[in-house]
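Translate sequence into structure tokens.
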Amino acid sequence: MVDAQDSFSASVIDWFHANRRDLPWRRDGFTAWGTLVSEFMLQQTPVNRVIPRLEEWLTRWPTPADLAAVPPGEAVRAWQSLGYPRRALWLHACAVAITERHGGVVPDDVDALLALPGIGDYTARAVAVFAYGDRHPVVDTNIRRVIARAVDGQGEPPPPSRRDLAAMEALLPSERAAAAAFNAGMMELGALVCVARTPRCDVCPLADVCAWRLAGYPEYAGPKKAVQKKYEGSDRQVRGRILAELRASHIPVTAAELESLWPDAAQRDRALAGLLADGLAVTAPGGYTLP
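Result follows.
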């Protein structure tokens, strides 16, 4: 007799096979390097913005060694409007480390992946699972939301913690292929159906067992993640303007040119100092450039 856990995972896997999107990183022959690049790009960036940039990157830099061979500033320039540009620096550093430590081959071991620059729990396990088919729990924002609702009966998940991996492990099928499909299916379910604001419970494969739905959709009263301050007028906006100017120029941008980008001198100087501290900009004769 199939137990509740097996039924839960089977429902998700069956739904995923019938409803999965055709995404580049799910296609046969997609490389481990391509998976790693896609995971860096997909952090806090919508899929539709990632796909064209990913294709450009993998055409230009099809292997870690190709990216490692260019200055890190080229990675920042190619990142363009994906946001959180430090990810470009981390990805470049990651390519250098893979080239130097692993002969240009993306490792399949979670601990080896975690030892690479810019890679955390999610990315390491995502690469091991989706590129190499290993069995590990993968937990992103979408998966956390599905577990919070379907299993814990809460309208939204509490802030991330180490408990998230244990919660996903408890649901994970034992067979490798099924585990990989379940990881992808839970992620897809959270992205397409069990969405944050208007969940589509009428088409959810877990509707009959969802603890939150069965409890009458109670309001969430637990701890919440801090809400990011608005972008308009923020230091992030100023950083973005400065970085866009550096990307557009292949010669040093002068201090006078930067002054025209933002009227508040103190905020402009603070944003520039942050870019320099993060390694996203460097001083050069006559001004500033990408690294």
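Note: DSSP finds 15 helices and two strands in the chain.
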